C-alpha cells in the first residue's frame, strides 16, 4: 500500500488550532481576572466641570495647529472615551495629530438633584458655557463643533438657536433628525403605551439599567455572540483588548435627567419637532433651516440605533449652502471607532474640517 | 493523501465564526420582528408601569416611616440637593458674566504669550498646491 501523507496545509492548520486552544486557556484566565480595560489615555485637562458636565482640553500632538478649535459633543447616554478608546484606535488622537485643537464635552451620571435638567439646560446653558470656555482657553473668536448621536442633536439645537454665535462649522455623526424613523425605539416609546410622565415623576433620574436595557433589546444576541467571539479569539491579544475596551464602554451607559428624558420624548420623539421645524427650546426657536454655516453629516448604512433614514434628511433641512455627507457601511459605533472609521470617516472629517479651520 | 485539487481545506475556525455571525443575525431579526409589534410595546410598557406603581408605593411608605421617626425623607434631601444645584448654576452665571466683562478689558493674548503650538496650520488643499508648485 502506498504511504499516504497528510497535506502540509492541513498539518499547519491543525498545529494552529492546537496553539490557539492552549493560548485560549492561558489567556482566558487572564481575561477573567484582569483589571478593567484602560481607556481614554490621550493626555487632557479638565477645564470646566459642573454637576454632570465635564469639558476637557486635550494636549496638542502636532507642532502646528489649525486656528479654529474643535469641540466634540458626546451623546448623553454614554461616556466620551469612545472617541479615545486606545492609542492607535482614537479619533481624538488622530485629530490631534492632524493638527486640530481638540476639546470634548463629556458627561458624568446626573445625581438625583439634577433630575430637573431639561433640554434647555443642555442646549442653552451647558453647550454655550462650554463654547465660551473653549474660546477663552484658545483665545480664538470662533470654533467648530462635532456632535455624535444625541450630542449631534444637542449641537444642532444649539446651532439653530444661536445663529449669531461663534459657531463656524458643524459636523453631525449618526445624528437622528427624523425621529419617526427611529424604528424599534419609536415603537417602544409610542405615546399610546409609554407613560413618560409616570416614569419621570416616579424615578426622577431615569436609571442606567433602563438605558442599557433599551440598547440591548435592539440587538438581543449581540452580547452572547460577542462573548462567543472573544472566547474563540482569546489567543488574539489585539482582538481581546479591543473587545474589552468596547465592552467597558457599553457597560458604562449613563442615567438620564428626568426632565431631559421628558423633553426628548415629547418634543423630539412624539412631536418630531426638530424635523418639522417647530421646535422651541428655552423659549428660543430651533429651526434647522436657520443653520447656514457649513455642515458635514456622517451616517452609517446599518445603524441599528439611529437608522439611516432617521439621519439622512439633515442636509436637506439645514439652510447651509456648504454641506457634505458621507455614508459608511457599518453600524452606529463602528462609524466613529474601529478600523473602518480610521480608514474612512476620520480622514474625511479631518479633510473637510481642515479646509474650514483657518 | 496529497492534495489533488488547488482547493483550500476547510477552516473549522472560520466556519465557526460564520456560524456565530449567522446565528446572531438570525436571532436578532427574529427578536426584532417580535419586539417590533404594537402588542410587545404595550406589554412591555404595562410591565414598566406596574414596576413604577410598586416603586411609588414603596417610596410613599418609606417617606411615612421616616416622617414618624422625624428623619428627613428622600424628597427632603433631594430638595436640599436641588437648592445647592440652583446655587451652583447662579454662581456659574455670575462667573460667566465676570469673565465676559474681564475679556472686554483684556486684549487678546498674542501667540507669544499664549502657550501651545502656533495656530498657523493651513488647509489640506493649500498644502497640496504648495507641494505641487
Mean pLDDT of chain A: 93
Rg estimate of chain A, integer Å: 22 Å
Q: Tell me the distance between the termini of chain B.
A: 63 Å
In angstroms, what separates the terminal alpha carbons of chain A? 80 Å
Largest sheet of chain A: 8 strands, mixed
Apparent shape of chain A: globular
Largest sheet of chain B: none
Biggest interface, which chains? A-B, 63 and 61 residues
How helix-rich are the residues of chain A, as a percent range? 40-55%
Strand/helix succession of chain B: HHHH
Structural class of chain A, by secondary structure, is alpha/beta
Assess the beta-strand content of chain B as a share of residues.
Answer: under 5%
Helix and strand pattern of chain A: HEEEHEHEHEHHEHHHEHHEEEHHEH
What does this protein look like?
The complex is a heterodimer of chains A (358) and B (133). Chain A has 358 residues and is an alpha/beta fold. Chain A has helices spanning 8-33, 91-97, 119-138, 150-161, 184-188, 196-203, 208-218, 222-232, 237-251, 258-270, 273-276, 308-311, 314-317, 339-355; strands spanning 44-50, 53-58, 70-73, 102-107, 143-148, 167-173, 205-206, 256-257, 280-281, 284-285, 295-300, 323-328. Helices cover 44% and strands 16% of the residues of chain A. In chain A, helix 3 (119-138) packs across helix 4 (150-161) and helix 6 packs antiparallel against helix 10 (258-270). The longest helix of chain A has 26 residues, at 8-33. With 133 residues, chain B is mainly α. Chain B contains 4 helices and no strands. Chain B is flat, with a radius of gyration of 33 Å. Chain B starts with 11 loop residues before the first helix and ends with a helix. Classes of the chains: A alpha/beta (358), B mainly alpha (133). At the A-B interface, helix 1, helix 3, helix 5, helix 6 and helix 8 of A face helix 1, helix 2 and helix 3 of B.
Amino acid at each position: 500500500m502506498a504511504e499516504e501523507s497528510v497535506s502540509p496545509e492541513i498539518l499547519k492548520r491543525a498545529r494552529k488550532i492546537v496553539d490557539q486552544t492552549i493560548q485560549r486557556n492561558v489567556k482566558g484566565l487572564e481575561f477573567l481576572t484582569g483589571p478593567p480595560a484602560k481607556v481614554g489615555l490621550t493626555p487632557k485637562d479638565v477645564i470646566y466641570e459642573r454637576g454632570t458636565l465635564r469639558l476637557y482640553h486635550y494636549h496638542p500632538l502636532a507642532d502646528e495647529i489649525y486656528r479654529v478649535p474643535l469641540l466634540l459633543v458626546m451623546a448623553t447616554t454614554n461616556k466620551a472615551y469612545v472617541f479615545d478608546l486606545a492609542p492607535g484606535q482614537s479619533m481624538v488622537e488622530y485629530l490631534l495629530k492632524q493638527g486640530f485643537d481638540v476639546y470634548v464635552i463629556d458627561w458624568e451620571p446626573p445625581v438625583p438633584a439634577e433630575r430637573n435638567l431639561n433640554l434647555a439646560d443642555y442646549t442653552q446653558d451647558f453647550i454655550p458655557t462650554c463654547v465660551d470656555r473653549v474660546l477663552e482657553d484658545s483665545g480664538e473668536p470662533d470654533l467648530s463643533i462635532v456632535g455624535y448621536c444625541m450630542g449631534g442633536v444637542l449641537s444642532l439645537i444649539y446651532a439653530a438657536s444661536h445663529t449669531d454665535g461663534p459657531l463656524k462649522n458643524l459636523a453631525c455623526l449618526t445624528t437622528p433628525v427624523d425621529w419617526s424613523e427611529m424604528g424599534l425605539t419609536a415603537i417602544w416609546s409610542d405615546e399610546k403605551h409609554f407613560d413618560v410622565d409616570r416614569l419621570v415623576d416616579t424615578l426622577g433620574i431615569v436609571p442606567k439599567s433602563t438605558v442599557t436595557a433599551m440598547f440591548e433589546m435592539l440587538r438581543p444576541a449581540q452580547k452572547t455572540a460577542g462573548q462567543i467571539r472573544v472566547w474563540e479569539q482569546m489567543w488574539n491579544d489585539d482582538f481581546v483588548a479591543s473587545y474589552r475596551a468596547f465592552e467597558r464602554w457599553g457597560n458604562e451607559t449613563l442615567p438620564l435627567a428626568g426632565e431631559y428624558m421628558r423633553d426628548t420624548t415629547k418634543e423630539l420623539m412624539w412631536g418630531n419637532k426638530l424635523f418639522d421645524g417647530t421646535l422651541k427650546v428655552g423659549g428660543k426657536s430651533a429651526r434647522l433651516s436657520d443653520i447656514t454655516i457649513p455642515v458635514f453629516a456622517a451616517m452609517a448604512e446599518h445603524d441599528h440605533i439611529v437608522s439611516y433614514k432617521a439621519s439622512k434628511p439633515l442636509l436637506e433641512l439645514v439652510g447651509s449652502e456648504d454641506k457634505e455627507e458621507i455614508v459608511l457601511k457599518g453600524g452606529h459605533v463602528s462609524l466613529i471607532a474601529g478600523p473602518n472609521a480610521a480608514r474612512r470617516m476620520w480622514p474625511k472629517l479631518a479633510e473637510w474640517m481642515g479646509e474650514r479651520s483657518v | 493523501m496529497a492534495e489533488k485539487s488547488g482547493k483550500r481545506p476547510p477552516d473549522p475556525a472560520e466556519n465557526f465564526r460564520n456560524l456565530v455571525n449567522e446565528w446572531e443575525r438570525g436571532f436578532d431579526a427574529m427578536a426584532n420582528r417580535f419586539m417590533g409589534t404594537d402588542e410587545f410595546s404595550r406589554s412591555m410598557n404595562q410591565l414598566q408601569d406596574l414596576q413604577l406603581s410598586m416603586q411609588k408605593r414603596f417610596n410613599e411608605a418609606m417617606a411615612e416611616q421616616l416622617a414618624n421617626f422625624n428623619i428627613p425623607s428622600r424628597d427632603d434631601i433631594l430638595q436640599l440637593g436641588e437648592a445647592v444645584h440652583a446655587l451652583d448654576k447662579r454662581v456659574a452665571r455670575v462667573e460667566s458674566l465676570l469673565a465676559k466683562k474681564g475679556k472686554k478689558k483684556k486684549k487678546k493674548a498674542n501667540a507669544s504669550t499664549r502657550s501651545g503650538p502656533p495656530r498657523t496650520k493651513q488647509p489640506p488643499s493649500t498644502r497640496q498646491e504648495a507641494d505641487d508648485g
